[in-house]
Amino acid sequence: MKAPARVIKILFRYAMSFDGINDYVVVPNSDNLLNGLKSASILVWVRTLALSPYHRFIAGWRNDVNSDFYILHYHRADYLEMRARTASGLRDLTPSFAGYYDKWTHIAFVRDGTVLKAYFNGALVASRGDMYDEPWGPSSNFSLGVRVVRLDSYYDGLIAQACAYSRALSAEEVALNYANPDNPVKNGLVLWLQADPQNIKDIDGDGVLEWIDLSGFGNHGKMYGATLVEVIKSPVRILSPVRVVGA
């Protein structure tokens, strides 16, 4: 039996919906995102709708099973794990957040050389300074909502925006992005996925819809099961393939 529609408090008009079973988005040719960098930033607006373990918001994977970085919620609603791998080892942050489940949440993950920082709703919540001084490898499987190399750890919830930067954002810039989701900082922006009907197209004609990258770098996300929904009122209405439903 189909689960009842869930009432969602509005912050964004549109979001990408992931069902926790088989939905994900992947940027298939994203070597130009973070490959070779020692400093970078990843930011995402999410609303988690299930408490199952190991649901990944966003991840970057090499061609083997090793991760370069990922952000996930782990076992319970107030616990997030952010992890980054260098050529020399794995480093992680595991801050505990209150008031996270079923609420729009802005999460930022910033690596600045040997320093790794986590921000929650614009505020710094965790930091460590023992990252190895090695660059990340190719992130050729940059993904939203799944560990794409194994097709597991599916996310159940909404993602309204994902951004990646080829540099470390300052605390002030993270706060600016949190306060202005429709107008993120542009300096160093290499991925900007914003949920909106005009940003969902089959641009290469292969029959798979793409979440268009607004950064200008062409890092478009292929949509596999994930659907654009309008969260202006309940029940949530599916808009993918692109079909604007009147309010």
Describe this protein with a few key phrases.
single chain, disordered C terminus, 40% strand, globular, Jelly Rolls, 5% helix, 9-stranded antiparallel β-sheet, mainly beta, 18 strands, 247 residues
Question: How does this structure look, described?
Answer:
- The protein has 247 residues and is mostly beta strands.
- The protein has a single domain (14-238), classed as Jelly Rolls (Sandwich).
- 5% of the residues lie in helices and 40% in strands.
- The protein has two helices and 18 strands.
- It has helices spanning 31-34, 171-179, and strands spanning 14-19, 24-27, 39-48, 55-61, 67-73, 80-86, 89-93, 105-112, 115-120, 123-128, 142-144, 156-165, 189-194, 200-201, 210-211, 221-224, 227-230, 237-238.
- Strands 1, 3, 8, 9, 10, 12, 13, 17 and 18 form a nine-stranded antiparallel sheet that branches. The chain has a nine-stranded antiparallel sheet with strand order 7-6-5-4-11-2-16-15-14, with no helix packed on it.
- The longest helix is centred in the C-terminal third of the chain and has 9 residues, at 171-179.
- It is globular, with a radius of gyration of 17 Å.
- The two termini are 27 Å apart.
The largest pleated sheet is described as: 9 strands, antiparallel
Order of helix and strand elements from N to C terminus: EEHEEEEEEEEEEHEEEEEE
Q: State the CATH class.
A: Mainly Beta
What separation lies between the terminal Cα atoms? 27 Å
Number of strands: 18
- Output the structural class: mainly beta
Overall 3D form: globular
Total number of helices = 2
Radius of gyration, taken over Cα atoms and rounded to an integer in Å: 17 Å
Approximately what portion of the residues adopt beta-strand conformation?
A: 35-45%
CATH architectural name: Sandwich
Low-confidence stretches: 1-9, 242-247
How much helix, percentage-wise, in residues?
Answer: under 10%
The CATH topology corresponds to: Jelly Rolls
